[in-house]
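Field reference: sequence -> structure
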Amino acid sequence: MKRVFTLNEKTHGPGGIFYQWQRSLGNYLATTGFDHNVRIFDRHGELREEINLPGLCTGFGWDVDGDVLAIINDKTGVVFLWNANSARLSQLDSGLRDSLTFLLWSKTGQQLSIGTAKGNLMIYNHQTSRKIPILGKHTKKITCGAWSSQNLLALGSQDNTLTISNAEGDTIRQTNLRAEPSDIQFSEMKGDERSQMGDNTVSIVIGRKTLYLYNINDPENPIELAFQQRYGSIVAYKWYGDGYIMIGFSQGFFVVISTHMKEIGQELFQARNHKDNLTSIAITLSLNKAASCGDNIVKIHELSDLKETYAILNLDDERQLGQINWTDDGQLLAVSTKAGSLHVYLTKLPMVFDTYNTRLAYLTSLLEVTVQDNVSGDAPIVLAADVEPAFIGLGPYHLAVGMNNRAWFYALDCEVGAPPEKLKDREYLGTVQSLKMNADYAAVRFEGKVQLHMIEGDQGASDDRETRLFPDKDQADTKITCHCLTPEFLIFGTDSGGLHYFFIEDWQYVNEYRHMVGIRKIFVDPTGTRIIFIDDKSDGFVYNPVNDQVVEIPDFSPTTKGILWENWLSDKGIFVAFDEEKLYTNVYCRETVNESVCELVGVTKLPYGQVPMLLYNGEVTLQTQSGKTSNLVLDTHSFDGRNLQEMPPADVKTALDQCIKLRRYKDAWALSAHLDSRESWLDLGRAALYNLEIDFAMRVYRQIGDVGMVMSLQAIKDSEDRNLLAGYIAMFTEDFNRAQDLFLASSNPQAALEMRRDLLHWDSALQLAKALAPDQIPFISKEYAQQLEFTGDYTNSLMHYEKGITKEEAYREHDENCAAGVARMSIRLGDIRRGVGMAVQMPGRALKKDCAQILENMKQWSEAAMLYEKGGYYDKAAAVYIRSKNWAKVGELLPQVTSPKIHAQYAKAKEADGRYKEAAQAYENAKDWDSVIRINLDHLQNPEDAVRIVRETQSVEGAKMVAKFFLKLNDYASAIQFLVMSKCNDEAFQLAQQHDQMEVYAEIIGSDATAEDYQSIALYFENEKNHFLAGKFFFLCAQYGRALKHFLRCSNSDDSKAIGMAIETVGQANDDALTHQLFDYLLGETDGVPKASKYLFRLYMALKQFREAARTAIIIAREEQNAGNYRDAHDVLFSMYQELKQQKIKIPSEMAHNLMILHSYILAKVHVKRGDHLKGARMLIRVANNISKFPSHIVQILTSTVIECHKAGLKNSCFSYAAMLMRPEYRNQIDVKYKKKIEQIVRKPDKTEEDEPTTPCPQCGYAQAETELVCPNCKNNIPYCIITGRHMTKDNVTACPRCDFPALKDEFLSVLETEENCPMCSEMVKSEELKDVMDLNKYMNPDEGED
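Structure field:
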């Protein structure tokens, strides 16, 4: 805090100093000491008056308005009165003869109370000059007193009494006190309810130790509060707030108590503010602060939080302080010392300032004005003013300060550090309330008028443009309440609601707006194109002078003190309204879908006691009470674009909402990209659309992939009609009513009609069509009628369908649709004849169906059926005819009917009429086979058809009926068959048992039965000693032990089948005991008769003992060969070969070799049959070389070999085998017809024979004979071709698709031309099934294996 001035102890001589600030205004300070003088200083420390008294001053005080200072002394009864306005001194004779000791002005009136040393009192009314003497009010010296707000006077005296009197001096209350009173004050005790009386309590310090509370309404129950002894004596106390008392104690303690009865006696706050002593306390409610002084320190606290120390003043050059007092407005704080000096500090500067763009001019001291620009960073300019400014005006080149009716003008184009140059001073016709300047002119408002004059012009010039007074003479009754000045205009508002624009260049009015009530304040934006005004109702509005548009500011605080427009050009349209506590950020948008709007963005708390002066880029510059500035960032502008990655998502979302509201789209884009949520992008896109930022909105919707919206915006963005553009945007954002209003105000009002049609808002569309496009009414009526029909409003639907008919050939299809609607609605509304007639006449099938359905729902069967029939819906027509029992029509339609349900209904009707043949046919058409079977059995006596149908359809119910039919005829076998077919196995079993038909039942039941069914059959056959069937059914029900027992007891006639079943049983059982039992039986150990080897082979196969089965197969094949059954031997070996290959078991070489020899024999027969003698001869040579394996046909095979070799030209081979035949053991067995020929070959040998052709080995490529199966080079076995018997080559490879044996593809295809089956597996093969085999390795070494 700045020290304004100091009065040293020499001012009043030795001793203490006493002082009082002027009430209300605080412009004067009255002081006195022990030198018989009262001095009056102004607030800057200048001596204004010195009053010499005849004696020592015993009291002085200012009246309630601060106009008169009253002074008394101890020598005379005269009261000196000094008038602050006129600076004149007058005297008043009190008429009291004893020494005057006490003086006090009333709080509310002009009464002055004066007390004497003997207890007498006089009350003087300064307004009426009436004096009321009251003698003997007290018996001793009156020392203290107080006036209440109800003009009651409380007095304390050395006689230890308290009196309370009215303004006439009449005593109302009187009470005795136990010690001398001091420091009397009036206030209101804190209670549950407010006192109607107001100041109801007198507080008094008793003996400087206790605080006495005397309630005027309850005088019998006073309260006396004592405090801790360590606090010392009571120095001073102050009431504040809602019944709180702050008390200062001599030992430096600072205590707050409450006077509420529930809290009385409790200390709410206590602190030791001063180390040694405390001498005074003071409170200023205007600053909401409290101060205490003691030692050489003054401490200032916030009343709202006493723990917070606002400031500390150290008076290092003083030893002991005296009293401390604030002016009423809290601007100045005076501190006296015991030595007689006085220090005055500035605690609150007057909030006087002005701005121009980003420039500020404000008080930094009572006589100092600072001009600075925080944005541009220019050096501040400091002006030392001659007077304390009451107002400041700032222009681009000038500064004005002034008070009352005078202003001083200064030029700001001074050098850095130099004070501004004073240009002139000027007086006005009244007290100046505000002053505004531009580059050339100043506009000064005083007493309801505004004077516009040039700043540097010559006052004596006759130029009319030099000065002008507003309002004009013809508006003498109008009072100007506010004004502002832009580079081009003087703008002022009046108490009658007028807002006037005066164009300075043309020196005339150019615009006037008339508001409904008076205008109190106006605030112009930096460009001068928008004005905010506050009217007498405390409502705020934004005014656009271009089109006289006024937009009310929402949620406008009624206590708003001022408006700040944003000076940052990028945030055009943002402004802040502020009251005592908050800053309200608003944004004004001229161009939106809803035309111009004003929106509240957010609220920021305003620091206490600070006044906003300037807004730039969301930062408010505030003037503080100490004459400094501070900066406050608005809560709505808290996002600065930095540290985005560190912000939590909730804060990012809040920042995004703020940026959207502030129209800061660049920042909003960055925030949306950071959030990267569809919701955030949509919020941004909708906001851009609302503000008609089409290009930016397209960018947003393109970002989220909304192709439809981007294309829609692309189509409208070049629209020059603002209403049309806004209408489309409103439509896109689903504000359809607003869109319609905008479309109608645009150059294309039909867009409103198109929108309503697209939205199916037909009532609105019809109303618009009447005015905009009457030719569209029929088409809209039709669409409306369709919707009404759908919702069930048939009456209105019929009306609109009828309105929709145009009777124009060009719209024939449209008219037909309307006519169809008329037909439907007529039927629904009961006009059936009209509707049916229209439906029949119109060509479409769909209409007939629709009308028929409506009629059917209305139970109008005949008309419905007729329309179905006309439309070709025969199934529906027949169904409706059935409902109306019109069987004749049903019969006519039956050939066209496809619905089984219709046929079934017709069949039932015919059956009821006894026409069974027709009924059966209808049931058959309906696929109701059970009914067909029933009719054939019960009525037509036609069991053959019934049986046929049951067999074809497998009908369970039908089978039951047929079974019952055959049962009646005693045809038990057939009955059993159909009972089984109908799943009635128990009934079939009982029937078979009763009539000895169990074998039939067993045959029929097959594999489709349960284990219980099989067991029942098995037990039956067991009782009948039919071992084979008993064993078979025990096997089926998995009782393998019993099954094997029966199979082994079968008679010789069933031996082969029984052994086969026994082998299958053992294979399924997987039981070693049963296996050994069967082995013993097959080997003859049971009955001494060994069984054939083939059974042993089958047993091994069933047990999956494939190696044993292979050995057995070789034995069986050898037996078959010995018996001459070569094909059987081949098949046994082939099947065993395949089984071993499937089980991935190595194939024994003997088996592979034997299979190859047998297969060569079969191939020889094939080739001889086909006439290919060379291939046949080669295969027979291979067989003849192994002739010992064919003992039954040695001679026949050798004979065939000789003949085929002869035919093939293999002369040497022919001779070799002919010579073999001539051996004695074979010679007599040669067939007679070949014997001579063979003998001739032997007698006349021809040993010429070409070498056998060679082909390469598929493994090593060595060329070897075609029929050689072992490569002499690589010693590998080579697979043989199953067609030719030759060895395979790498190329031309295929395989049988059935047995997977390799073959030469060309040879296989050649054989398939005459043969159908594979010579190896005897399965049918088609030529197209043969596929090329690329890898022969899987067929190599097929004969390797374990013996």
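Note: The longest strand covers residues 305-314.
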